[in-house]
Design a protein that fits this description.
seven-stranded mixed β-sheet, five-stranded mixed β-sheet, 19 helices
Length: about 450
């Protein structure tokens, strides 16, 4: 039996095909040539052999290559702050603000009243102070950058006292001790992995201490025989010793989510009220804005950070400042923040609304997948509220011959990628993290996945 792969056309022959000739009229020859070679190689490597239409296959490859690598996806996982999917989706007001400054010039570093050079650090300063109650504020490119800057400005060459139980690893294998070392500060561990007391910090004061540092363990929980000093007591000791107290709270929670049972994350205002001199947090987690690092607290310490050379290396760009500013503006009215900021809206959805959403999605799913409703749990994600339980209603799909992993793969690779869960041999869809009205788009994606 002859190998059908030996009958594959040459590159030159395919370039003379009428359909490919049409593509050469609208696309660069080099791009078409690459797509032709990829099509032939794909046919050579698969058992099915040649595609039904060479021109159509080549056109699809051209379209795929012309598409941006960074694409929007539909998040049906139920993980609200999904780090792999870009964490917090932005409020409409934030998107509008970003588009406005990105599509033209802006007064990023221009004082409009005087016509002289201004500072980009002014743009979110008043808003951050207003919603947190801090004396001063500074925005940089991310939370790790904020910590690096603060330690470089305040503690280079001196000791930073931190509990051994807070030497955590955050996403992407970045570790707090590594950031601390890169700043030039000396790490001074106190206490044990599970228990650290106020006296441990007090005894550390016989060294050349530049600051106390607390890092909130936001991506895991310690239970059982554990102890940590109350932030207010630690702030009081730092004040007596004349050293600043830095508190990295991580998630940037500004809203009060306790009515929905979400209580284990410190709010920015709580950290400041406890007496922290400088509070550090992310912009793209529970705050619900773009990726950013925020530093708020005592004016003298923020000024040290603002004037340090590292500040330029980690400065925020105009789009970050625009999106963050618009997000912070929503917090002036707590009800508006809960309604308009997607992260807060998803976290506070009622069980009844989730059931309604799941019912609409169920109706949009192809019957051949035998869709049914199941009770389950969503997750906050992003290292926030690690022990929180968010009851939800899932749409469960039986993938048949494709298998759950096969259907999930086809959904991810579709024209509109849909990211799902796979568990117990089924594909699970959680509507908590889907945009309003996305049911028909998910249904269409499922129909397409079954046809391919």
């Amino acid at each position: 039996m002859s190998d059908r792969r030996r009958q594959l056309p040459s590159v030159d022959r395919l370039l003379r095909e009428p359909g490919v000739q049409e593509l050469l009229q609208v696309a660069p020859r080099s791009a078409v040539l690459t797509a032709v070679r990829e099509s032939i190689e794909a046919a050579r490597s698969r058992r099915a052999g040649q595609p039904e239409s060479w021109a159509a296959d080549i056109q699809d490859r051209l379209a795929t290559r012309g598409r941006s690598n960074l694409r929007p996806v539909l998040n049906a996982t139920g993980v609200v702050l999904h780090t792999n999917l870009g964490r917090a989706p932005l409020a409409p007001a934030a998107v509008e603000a970003i588009v406005a400054v990105a599509s033209g010039y802006s007064n990023l570093e221009l004082d409009l009243s005087s016509g002289s050079r201004g500072s980009r650090t002014d743009h979110c300063r008043e808003l951050l102070c207003g919603v947190t109650g801090a004396e001063d504020a500074l925005v940089v490119n991310n939370a790790a950058g904020a910590l690096l800057l603060a330690l470089s400005a305040i503690a280079a060459g001196r000791d930073v006292v931190i509990s051994r139980g807070e030497l955590i690893e955050i996403g992407g294998s970045f570790r707090i001790p590594d950031i601390l070392t890169r700043s030039g500060a000396r790490l001074h561990e106190v206490g044990t992995t599970n228990r650290t007391h106020l006296d441990d910090y007090r005894r550390a004061l016989d060294r050349d201490v530049a600051a106390f540092l607390t890092v909130h363990r936001s991506n895991f929980e310690q239970r059982g025989f554990v102890a940590s000093p109350d932030p207010a007591a630690l702030a009081s000791l730092a004040r007596e010793a004349g050293v600043p107290y830095l508190y990295d709270i991580g998630s940037g929670l500004l809203a009060d989510l306790s009515p929905w049972g979400l209580t284990s994350e410190p709010r920015v205002s709580d950290a400041l009220d406890a007496g922290a001199d400088l509070v550090l947090f992310s912009g793209d987690k529970l705050l619900g804005g773009p990726q950013a690092g925020c530093l708020v607290g005592r004016k003298a310490l923020v000024a040290l950070c603002r004037e340090h050379p590292v500040a330029r290396a980690v400065r925020a760009d105009k789009m970050t400042l625009a999106g963050l500013g618009a997000t912070l503006s929503l917090y002036r009215d707590p009800a508006s923040a809960l309604r308009e900021i997607p992260v807060l809206r998803m976290l506070t959805l009622s069980a009844e609304e989730i059931v309604r959403r799941a019912g609409r999605l169920l109706a949009a799913c192809p019957a051949v997948l035998s869709p049914e409703l199941l009770t389950g749990e969503s997750a906050v994600g992003g290292g926030a509220f690690p022990g929180a339980v968010l009851p939800t209603t899932l749409v469960s799909l039986h993938a048949g011959p494709l298998g759950a992993d096969g259907l999930a793969l086809r959904l991810r690779l579709g024209a509109t990628p849909v990211v799902t869960r796979v568990a117990g041999g089924r594909v699970l869809l959680d509507t908590r993290t889907l945009p309003d009205g996305a049911e028909s788009r998910v249904g269409a994606a499922l129909e397409l996945a079954l046809r391919e």
